[in-house]
Specification:
- By secondary structure, the protein is of the alpha+beta class.
- It has helices at 3-9, 16-31, 40-70, 74-77, 87-134, 145-165, 172-194, 217-225, 262-269, and strands spanning 201-209, 232-243, 246-256, 278-286.
- The chain has a four-stranded antiparallel β-sheet with strand order 2-3-1-4, covered by helices on one side.
- α3 packs antiparallel against α5.
- The chain is rod-shaped and about 160 Å long.
C-alpha cells in the first residue's frame, strides 16, 4: 500500500485539539491560580503545538479534497498498467502530494521535538512545585541557588562557634554548681530527719475466755491489764455472756505495729493459766 492510500484510509481525530484544550483547562483549575505564572512557558509550547496541528489538519483536508476531485487513488497508482490521457495532470498531482507528505513529515518531526521539550518543562515545573509545597516560603525572594546556600551556611558557622566556646574539661561554674547541689541535698536530708516519722498503730479487740462460771472475772481483768509493754495501751473492757452462766472478758487495746503484735499479747495473757482458758482476736483495725 502506498502512502497516498494509507492517508486516504486513515481515520483522523479532528476534534482532539478541543479535547486537549478542555483537559488543560481542567487541570489548571485543579492546580489553582497560583501556578498560572509558572505555566506561562508551558502555555506557549501548547499554543505552538495547536498551531502545528492546525497546519496538519489543513494539509490533510487539502489532500482529501484533491483525492476527491481526482476520483480515487487507484487510477493514479495504475497509470503505468493502462493508458491515461491525463498523465501530465496525474504527475502534477503526484508531485504535489509528495511535497505535502514531506512537509507533513517535517512538521511531525518538529512536533515530536516540541512535545519532548514540553514534557521536560512540565517535569521541571512539577519538581519545583513539589519542592515549594514541602518547604516553607522564605522571607525574602531568592534569585538563584547560591544565595540560599549562603543563608543556610550562616547558622552552621554560628553552631561551630558555639561548639568552640564549650569547655570539655569543666570550669569553675561547674564546681560551684556541684557544691550548691551537695549543700541542698544535705539540707534536705537534715530537714527530713527532723520531721517526725508517722507511727503505724492498730486497734485490737480481744476475747479472753475463763475456765468456768466460778472464775473470778475481776481478777482475770486485773491479770490481763498487768501485761505491760512499750507501745501497748489498754482501753475499755466489758463482760459478754457466752452461755450456761459463763461470761468472757472483751477488752480493747491500742498497739504500735513495730513494737507489739497479737502473738505477743496472746502469749503473755495465756501465762495466767489459773484464770485464762484462751485468747481470741475479735477485731483488728489499722489506725
Amino acid at each position: 500500500m502506498s502512502s497516498v492510500d494509507f492517508l486516504a484510509q486513515e481515520k483522523i481525530w479532528f476534534d482532539k485539539l478541543r479535547y486537549d484544550e478542555a483537559e488543560r483547562r481542567f487541570y489548571e483549575r485543579m492546580n489553582g491560580s497560583s501556578h498560572t505564572t509558572q505555566d506561562a512557558g508551558a502555555n506557549t509550547i501548547l499554543q505552538d503545538i495547536a498551531r502545528a496541528r492546525e497546519n496538519i489538519q489543513k494539509s490533510l483536508a487539502g489532500l482529501k479534497n484533491t483525492l476527491c476531485k481526482s476520483g480515487s487513488a487507484g487510477p493514479f497508482l495504475n497509470h503505468q498498467s493502462r493508458p491515461n490521457t491525463n498523465s501530465s495532470t496525474g504527475a502534477a498531482d503526484q508531485g504535489e502530494i509528495i511535497s505535502r507528505i514531506k512537509s507533513l513529515e517535517q512538521e511531525n518531526q518538529s512536533l515530536h521535538k516540541v512535545v519532548d521539550d514540553l514534557r521536560a518543562a512540565l517535569s521541571k515545573l512539577e519538581c519545583r512545585v513539589a519542592v515549594l509545597e514541602k518547604t516553607p516560603a522564605p522571607s525574602a525572594p531568592c534569585t538563584n541557588g547560591t544565595t540560599v546556600q549562603q543563608k543556610t551556611s550562616a547558622p552552621v558557622k554560628e553552631d561551630e562557634d558555639d561548639d568552640d566556646d564549650i569547655d570539655l574539661f569543666g570550669s569553675d561554674e561547674d564546681e560551684e554548681a556541684e557544691k550548691l547541689k551537695e549543700q541542698r541535698l544535705k539540707e534536705y536530708a537534715a530537714k527530713k530527719a527532723k520531721k517526725p516519722a508517722v507511727i503505724a498503730k492498730s486497734s485490737i479487740l480481744l476475747d479472753v475466755k475463763p475456765w468456768d462460771d466460778e472464775t473470778d472475772l475481776a481478777k482475770l481483768e486485773e491479770c490481763v491489764r498487768s501485761v505491760q509493754a512499750d507501745g501497748l495501751l489498754w482501753g475499755t473492757s466489758k463482760l459478754v455472756p457466752v452461755g450456761y452462766g459463763i461470761k468472757k472478758l472483751q477488752i480493747a487495746c491500742v498497739v504500735e505495729d513495730d513494737k507489739v503484735g497479737t502473738d505477743l499479747l496472746e502469749e503473755e495473757i495465756t501465762k495466767f493459766e489459773d484464770y485464762v482458758q484462751s485468747v481470741d482476736v475479735a477485731a483488728f483495725n489499722k489506725i
